[in-house]
Amino acid sequence: MLNSKSSSRPDAVHTVTLFIPALFWPHADADPDAPVVPALRTLIGRGDAGESRCDDEHAWLCERFGVQRQADWPVAPIALFGTGMPPGGDFWLSADPVHLQVNRDRLILLAPDSLSITDAEAVSLCAALNRHFAADHFTFLAPQPHRWYLKTARPARIHTSGLSRAVGHDVDRMLPEGEDRLAWHRIFNEVQMLLHAHPVNEEREQRGALQINSLWFSGGGTLPQARTSFQVVMGSSALARGLAKLAGIPFAATEQGIDAIVADDVLIELRAAATASMRLDPAAWKDALEDLEQRWFSPLARLLKKGRIRQLVIETVANGRSHRWSVSRRNWWRLWRPAVALDAPIRRP
Question: Which one of 214, 242, 303, 343 is least enclosed by Cβ atoms within 10 Å?
Fold first, then answer.
């Protein structure tokens, strides 16, 4: 374990990569207080920086596992595989249950993370969807109450926007594109009409809860192959677990903490800030990063300084770009470099 290794031993961990979706607050309509994260700010300030084009967090993960892009990044079948359900050779889409909120002349999407969906609600709504779309040979599944999937009889010839990119935005500008776009726009509208009239939503409305009044389709494809140089993945998402399974490497939950880092090249997916971002909750986003500071950033900075980690890599995605900071023990002693603010992606000249 990390707490028993030293820099002079050959089994010291070589590289720990932290992937932190929503490290920067992604929504323009709020200005959250800056999180108090001195260790993270110091690591970024002293690291070697780089950036490249990247659509979103799903694209980043798929690319790091050598997954080939299909019409979309095939997130749905990989995530379904990560939940323990075999996707077979079928075509799957994510069909996430969402709330569309009228805001002046726009429809703004609120994510499943904001809706507190129960297992019973998910089962009941998926059953209604399956009955309604039986002639289309659609199969809706809800292995998790807030993450649903759709199997179609043939591949959907569409390009979609991922849920994290759509949250808080006008959905009319982000509907599927491609050869089958008009058919999927029709399906989108049919789903809304069906869900609006369903007893589940009538009951939710009576108790003052937001309705589950639409689905967001994204991440379509068939199960791909995957490969990676990582030896272990730690995380919490079904996508990260599915990628690890595809690549044939161990997966551990981040709740196990830094003592579970036992391999030479480890990827750690830290999603707490992204979860808060999906709820459009800037205070929770700030709290999440400050909690990560205590549980991850500060302890890992100490281990880097002692030589028990040879390289710490911090990565995120913002505004269509991936941002990377690589910090070695030698970098750590760049005392002349100041800590940096986390109010926007940082570019070092």
Answer: 343
